Amino acid sequence: MKFMQKFKNIFLLFLIFFLSQNFIFHSVFSMEIDNLSDLKEKLQNQDWRQTYKKFYKIALIRKENRTPNQILFLQACAELVYDDGDTLLHKVAKFVDSKNIDRKKFVIFHLQDNGAQVADRDNYGNNIIHNHVIRHTPSKKRKPFYTLKEEKQYKCRKKLNEKKVFSPLKRVGDLNEKDINAQNDMLATPLHLAMSTASENTAIVYNLLKNGANPKIPDINGRTALHRLIANKNLSLDIKLLNLKVLLEGYPQEKRAQLAKIQDNKGNRAIDFAKFYHGQGSEIFQLIKQMDARLKPKKIKWFF
Questions:
Q1: pLDDT(47) > 70
Q2: What is the pLDDT of residues 48-96, one digit of tens each?
Q3: N or C end of the chain: which has fewer CB within 10 A?
Q4: pLDDT value at 23 more than 50
Q5: 212 is in which domain, residue-wise?
Q6: What is the 3-state secondary structure (H, E, C) of the chain?
Q7: What's the total number of domains in the chain?
Q8: What pLDDT does residue 270 have?
Q9: What is the CATH number of the domain that holds 216?
Q10: Looking at the domain assignment, is residue 60 inside a domain?
């Protein structure tokens, strides 16, 4: 009996030591956390992925069954700001949860329900929509999904992707034009990023335009999203054509001439870049020419 009692005592001591050394999140379920600021300070020093996973587990619990400390944890996560300026919502928006896509959507929904804002900016001035678009930037090693030969497939998939593009950002109706057209520190809108980097998912461009994105907004160099698309040397011709067609499809015909006339800080228009990079006989050049038949290309003026 004495041996069993000693064994129990040793086991209890080991268990107490193990729990005391375990991850900080165990304190969420105890009474040690007494205020919001202390909890946020502790969470800032932890790997955000662990916070993400823990948030998901707690958010699964029905509201009426959550403890006060669990509610406090959810609130702290919604207000959390890391040293790099990212909120937890920023980090999750940029994160590709390949193992569980639904988990990511669920976490973003509940972060917003607990007070996280789509309009919050990181150190680069990006909001959540910027980060969501950046997430779609393809690897240089991967072949772009869409090509002109797959245009029919794109048209079919576009309807399917329509709800998926902003699905992690709550409901599309909750996004206002101010957030859609927000400019970061380089004055780039999400549409600027989508037209020049998001080549794997052209439906992003379509949905941004459908939800109020303004392609006439200039960036720090005075370039619109159309300028960026045509002048981007990293995009293939097929992707440029497809994105341009989506832009023309999603933008009113009566406004296209005004868009085509916009000049950057050096006086260059999209048609000037189209001639320089692709020639006057290219389909891209002809499509821009159709926006305003009076346009005549001229020599490009560089920034350097």
A1: yes
A2: 999 999 999 999 998 888 888 889 999 999 999 998 888 998 888 888 7
A3: C
A4: no
A5: 137-304
A6: CHHHHHHHHHHHHHHHHHHHHCCHHHHHHCCCCCCHHHHHHHHHCCCHHHHHHHHHHHHCCCHHHCCHHHHHHHHHHHHCECCCCCEHHHHHHHCCCCCCHHHHHHHHHHHHHCCCCCCCCCCCCCCHHHHHHHCCCCCCCCCCCCCHHHHHHHHHHHHHHHHHCCCCCCCHHHCCHHHHCCCCCCCCCHHHHHHHCCCCCCHHHHHHHHCCCCCCCCCCCCCCHHHHHHHCCCCCHHHHHHHHHHHHHHCCHHHHHHHHHCCCCCCCCHHHHHHHHHCCCCHHHHHHHHHCCCCCCCCCCCCC
A7: 2
A8: 92
A9: 1.25.40.20
A10: yes
Question: Looking at the domain assignment, is residue 132 inside a domain?
Answer: no
φ and ψ of 237, to 5 deg: -60, -40
Q: Are residues 74 and 152 in the same domain?
A: no
Residue that terminates a domain, selected from 83, 117, 151: 117
- Whether the full predicted model's pTM is greater than 0.90, yes or no, is no
Contact 131, 125 (CB under 8 A): no
Segment 149-177, tens digit of pLDDT = 444 444 444 444 444 444 444 443 456 77
